[in-house]
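Session log. Operator J.P. requested a structure for one protein chain; no other inputs attached. Running the standard single-chain path with C-alpha cell output.
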Amino acid sequence: MSLASLEYLAYLDDTGCIKEDLQKKIGVYAIFNQEKELQFVGYSRDIYLSLQQHLVRQPQNCYWLKLQTIARPNRTILEETRQAWITEHGEVPTGNAASETSWTQPIDVKPVMTEEEKAQYLAGGELEQSKTLKKAARRIETTIKQQLRDRGVTMDFRFNPKLKEKGLLDLK
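Structure written below.
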C-alpha cells in the first residue's frame, strides 16, 4: 500500500494515550509532525512499544502517523515497504538520516549536562561519575515527562534505571 493512500491517524487518542490496540502489532509506520510533515519511517514487531520510544525521544515531532500492519514478522516485507514509502516521499526524512540516532537510540544525557554536572563528572572517580550521570539523567527525565504532560500525554513511562547510571534514558 502506498503511503499517500493511508489515512492520517492521531498519535495520541482523546485520553492522551497511544492506542492500545497497536500492542504486539507488526508493521511499518510513518511519523509526522504537527504540520503533517514526514519525520521518520520505521518498522517494528510491536508498533505500540516503538511509538512509545519515539514519543519520549521526539515529543515535538510525533503528532500524526500512518501505518500498515502484517500478520507475521517478515523482515524483507517490512524493509521493502519502509524503503518504498521513503522513495515515494521523494527524500529521506531527517529521522532516517541526519537525526536517526535521536529517533532510534537511547537518549544520551552527556551532551545536555549542565556546566556544574560536567565539572563534577570530570573531577570524580568512577562511582562519582556514575552518580553524576544518574542525577543528570533524572533531571532530563523530569524535563521529558513535563514536556509530555504539557502535550496532554497521560501515559506513564518507566525508564530503565540501570541505563541511567551510564547517562542514558530508554524505556524499560
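Operator note: The mean pLDDT is 96.
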